[in-house]
Amino acid sequence: MIRYIFNKTLVAMKNRYDYDVRYMHDILKTDLRAFLKLMAFQTMSTHAGKLPAGVLFAARIRAIIWDDCGPCTQLLVNMALEAKVSPDIVHAIIDRDTDSLPQDIALVVRFTELVLAHSPGADDLREEIVALWGNEGLITIAYCISSYRVYPALKYALGYGKACSRIQVNDLSLAPNRQSASGVV
After folding, report:
1. Which residue segment(s) compose the domain that 27 sits in?
2. Measuring CA to CA, which residue among 107, 120, 119, 123 is closest to residue 184?
3. Which branch of life, at top level (predicted)?
4. Confidence of residue 185 (pLDDT cuts 50, 70, 90)
5. Would you say residue 180 lies in a domain?
6. What are phi and psi of 3, to 5 degrees?
């Protein structure tokens, strides 16, 4: 019965976001306890604290682009648009166009890239983040950066990460800018 309920939830996600959930179906079919752990992980990856949606999705999108070139990124873009993040902001986040972003979102884009590159330059930006949103905001951003990298890794490990694609932001089709702030791809 519980598998039936989770299956319906996955089908609803597939339909809502036009997202391929086969890897989650396979986990559910193969090992219910493993699937329950994946669902428990969702509580970390969806933690939003008190941060504005644009800030959250800046960290989430840039983190997922680091490891993904397609469906996972598209899912996050769709979620950002659903959360009322402006398409222009989402476009600039994907392109890493910090000059076109509000200052707080540009800060998070730069910080995310530096963290992922393991650059000491993240230290100064971390202080700015704490000044803006406190340690709670820093923790939330850290959760965004670290947890959204899990999904592409899981899909690639299970054999589902084979599709690179352009990202749709409403009527605009984009190739994600995977160039980091430190020049590392």
Report:
1. 1-45
2. 119
3. Bacteria
4. very low
5. no
6. -60, -40
